[in-house]
């Protein structure tokens, strides 16, 4: 699975010309779908749950990813040590 929030964040950083975001978001999304990944939309009910997260991380995209993973009951893999502080279900890779 991949979140629409991730594509949204990549689109913003790609548009800013960030050197570590060289793949256009449309290419990334199409590639993920073509390889069998399911796209997770941002649902209003899930967005409401974001407010219940502790203020560990200020990035709204990361907070949405943590919330989506919890609501769906799936693990979230991250390389961000701060995000991993959300505990159970968030795995630092």
**DSSP summary, beta strand count:** 4
Low-confidence stretches: none
Mean pLDDT: 96
Instruction: Report the end-to-end length measured between terminal Cα atoms.
Output: 17 Å
**Rg calc:** 13 Å
Give me the side-by-side strand order of the main sheet.
Answer: 1-2
Textual characterization of the structure:
It is a single chain. This protein has a two-stranded parallel ribbon. The chain has helices spanning 4-15, 25-34, 44-49, 60-72, 81-84, and strands at 2-3, 39-40, 76-78, 90-92. Helix 5 links the parallel strand 3 (76-78) and strand 4 (90-92). It has 93 residues and is mostly helical. Helices cover 48% and strands 11% of the residues.
Task: Give short descriptive properties of this protein.
mainly alpha; 93 residues; two-stranded parallel sheet; 4 strands; single chain; two-stranded parallel ribbon
Concise structural overview:
This protein has 93 residues and is mainly alpha-helical. The chain has five helices and four strands. The strands form two sheets. A two-stranded parallel ribbon has the order 1-2. Strands 3-4 form a two-stranded parallel sheet.
Can you lay out the helices and strands and say which pair or pack?
Blueprint: E1 2-3, H1 4-15, H2 25-34, E2 39-40, H3 44-49, H4 60-72, E3 76-78, H5 81-84, E4 90-92
